[in-house]
Write a structure and sequence with these properties.
Blueprint (H helix, E strand, L loop, with lengths): L1 H18 L5 E6 L7 H11 L2 E6 L3 H10 L8 E6 L3 H6 L3 E2 L22 E13 H5 L21 E4 L5 H14 L4 H10 L3 E3 L2 H7 L11 E5 L2 H7 L10 E3 L7 E10 L5 H12 L1 H4 L3 H4 L2 E2 L8 H6 L11 H19 L2
Parallel strand pairs: 1-2, 1-3, 6-7, 6-8
Antiparallel strand pairs: 3-10, 4-10, 5-8, 5-9, 5-10, 5-11
Helix pairs in contact: 6-7, 7-14
């Protein structure tokens, strides 16, 4: 009898082991700039038992293109990093599953750009003009206060910007000029910038670390960067700074707000687990880790900012904005016309 009971128990244990579900590993597809602490991602795994494989696959535009091409056989379960300049492309290609996360109530309402909740906002950042405080303090010239100042002859040869065809902040700044001067006026504004000896680089690093006086041996004290660049300068300074060496121009319409989104990719084999990961990306736990790793602002209004952000960051009250649909319809034409007017 004992032998029989032992055999039954052993068989039950074997069947139970066979029936136990395999641990799930989710693939999170994102851009190359994705950066959060290993501890934060480990907490998600500890709480859920779900592992996460980070799949970095280029800039925001490349990520969307790859996801669209592979939508019938998705490369990942969740996509994070598509921004509002490429959001329409993602939605038109129908790569996301609608998901009304319970954390939507905690998100900034102005960042909810998709009423069907296919793509949910995770963070935002403002592309703004930054200037070198020390350079202007040593000059008789006051720092710029608006986009108009850049075409004043007094500012000739002082500004470096990025090419919108090859740079995300470059595209954002182009959109700010379209929003400010209209389709009939933005090219005239850029022609005035050219006449005022604006320098155009391929990317942000070339502009900031190659030409900007506050961060290089360059000769340009004005650069297109981010409103979060001043706190980054303080945070990474080798010696403690009480005042940021740079400042942002945040007058109405002079900055462009970039919003980054995440969504569950259609075709995932782990839809419920993928939704849990999206919830985690929206949670305070993840959101409060974002500022000091990617130097963007959390979309969750309950998330607390680190002290260096509270003290040194500047958030514009009225940044330039544009619907994802308008951007999608005109982006390529605006870039082509800009190229013809500025580079040729």
């Amino acid at each position: 009898m004992k032998k029989y009971l032992f055999s039954v128990i052993l068989l039950a244990l074997v069947l139970s082991a066979c029936a136990a579900p395999e641990p799930v590993t989710l693939r999170l597809m994102t851009h190359d700039s994705f950066d959060v602490s290993a501890e934060t991602m480990a907490q998600f795994t500890e709480e859920t038992g779900i592992a996460v494989d980070i799949f970095k696959s280029g800039d925001a535009g490349t990520v969307v293109n790859l996801a669209a091409l592979a939508k019938d056989d998705p490369l990942a379960d969740v996509l994070y990093g598509v921004d509002n300049t490429f959001l329409s492309r993602a939605l038109e290609n129908d790569i996301f599953i609608p998901y009304e996360s319970p954390l939507i109530a905690e998100l900034r309402p102005d960042l909810l750009l998709d009423p069907q909740y296919r793509a949910l906002p995770v963070d935002f950042g403002d592309v703004c003009l930054n200037y070198d405080r020390a350079w202007f303090a040593a000059s008789s010239l006051e720092p710029p206060q608006s986009l108009d100042d850049l075409v004043d002859p007094a500012f000739a040869g002082l500004t470096v910007v990025e090419n919108p065809a090859t740079s995300s902040p470059g595209l954002a700044f182009l959109l700010a000029t379209v929003d400010s001067y209209g389709e009939d006026g933005y090219l005239d504004y850029w022609r005035q910038l050219v006449d005022n000896d604006v320098l155009v680089t391929d990317g942000w690093e070339d502009a900031y670390y190659g030409a900007f006086t506050a961060a290089s041996d360059g000769d340009r004290p004005i650069v297109v960067s981010y409103a979060s660049s001043p706190p980054a300068e303080v945070y990474f300074a080798e010696t403690k700074l009480e005042v940021a060496p740079t400042a942002s121009v945040i007058s109405d319409g002079s900055c462009f707000r970039q919003v980054e989104f995440a969504g569950v990719l259609k075709g995932t084999e782990h839809e419920e687990e993928a939704k849990m990961l999206v919830d985690f990306l929206l949670s305070r736990q993840f959101q409060e880790d974002v500022p000091l790793h990617m130097f963007v602002f959390p979309a969750n209004e309950r998330a607390e900012l680190p002290e260096v952000f509270l003290k040194h960051s500047q958030i514009p009250d009225n940044p330039a904005t544009m619907s994802p649909e308008e951007i999608a319809q005109n982006r390529e034409a605006w870039i082509q016309d800009w190229t013809a007017a500025v580079l040729r």
